Amino acid sequence: MAIYKEQDFSERRNAANEARKALLNRFKARPAEDDPEVLARKAERQAILEAREKRNAEKEKLKQERLAREAIEKAEREAAAEAARIAAEEAAAAEAKIREAEETDRITRVLADEAERKAKRDARYAARKARGGRMPLPPRA
C-alpha cells in the first residue's frame, strides 16, 4: 500500500497562494473590451440574438395566422352545421305538415263515409216508416 503523506499547513498555504496567482494571471490575460476578438464575439452574439428574435417573431406571426385561419374554418363549419340543422328542421316541419294534412284528409274521408252510411240508414228507416208498419216476417220453411 501507498503511504499517505499529509500536507502540512505551509504546503496548503503555498498551494492556495499559487491557485490565487494563477487565477489572477488568467484574469489579467483576458482581452480588453476594445479588442477585435471580443468585439467580433460580441457582434456574433448580438447577431445570433437578433436572428433568434426574428425567428420567434416569424413563428408568432405564423401561429397567429394559423389560429386566425382555424377560427375562420371553425366559424364556417359551425355556420354550415347551423344551416344544415335549420334545413333539417324545415324539412321535418314540412314533413309534419304533410303528415298532418294526410291525417286530416283521412279523418275527413272517414267522417264523410260515416255520414253517408248514416244518411243511407236514415233513408232506409224513413222508407220503412213510409211503407207503414212492420215488415212481414219471411215464411217459414
TrEMBL record:
<feature type="region of interest" description="Disordered">
    <location>
        <begin position="112"/>
        <end position="141"/>
    </location>
</feature>
<feature type="compositionally biased region" description="Basic and acidic residues">
    <location>
        <begin position="112"/>
        <end position="125"/>
    </location>
</feature>
<dbReference type="Pfam" id="PF20089">
    <property type="entry name" value="DUF6481"/>
</dbReference>
<dbReference type="InterPro" id="IPR045510">
    <property type="entry name" value="DUF6481"/>
</dbReference>
<keyword id="KW-0175">Coiled coil</keyword>
<protein>
    <submittedName>
        <fullName>Uncharacterized protein</fullName>
    </submittedName>
</protein>
<feature type="coiled-coil region">
    <location>
        <begin position="40"/>
        <end position="104"/>
    </location>
</feature>
